[in-house]
Amino acid sequence: MRVGVLRPGVWVVSDPGAVLDPAGNEARGYKGCADPKTDPFDCFAKSDLHIEVDYQPADRYWTFQWIETGIFLALSGLLAGFCAWWLRRRTA
Questions:
Q1: Residue whose C-alpha is closest to residue 43's, from 28, 30, 33
Q2: How many CB atoms lie within 10 A of CB 19?
Q3: Contact in structure between 7 and 55 (CB atoms under 8 Å)
């Protein structure tokens, strides 16, 4: 059984974090998972270790794009207004 961080219909918004034990503590070299000869996917499937990943549903992608576009347009408008005000003040 292969274990992965991708799921259908979701958008991963974070890099996989540290390997955690059931108590939420970072596990290093725990149960042989740090051994380079061991397949990490098999190790996760057979142990109680996990990785926390943040997901957003894929249908929110365009919502985030429009919000970001609005923020950048507002900031560029403010900057353009400030530049116009500054130039008129300097030439007067």
A1: 33
A2: 21
A3: yes
Q: What angle do CA 36, 42, 46 make, to 5 degrees?
A: 120
Q: What pLDDT sits at residue 33? A: 64
Domain limits, the chain? 1-53, 59-92
Those residues with Cβ within 8 angstroms of residue 34's Cβ, 6 or more apart along the chain or in another chain: 28
Write out residues in the chain with pLDDT < 50, as ranges.
1-3
φ, ψ for residue 32 (rounded to 5)?
A: 80, 5
pTM beyond 0.85: no
**Strand boundaries in the chain, DSSP class E:** 10-12, 19-20, 50-51, 55-57
| Residue 59 to residue 12: CA distance in whole angstroms | 12
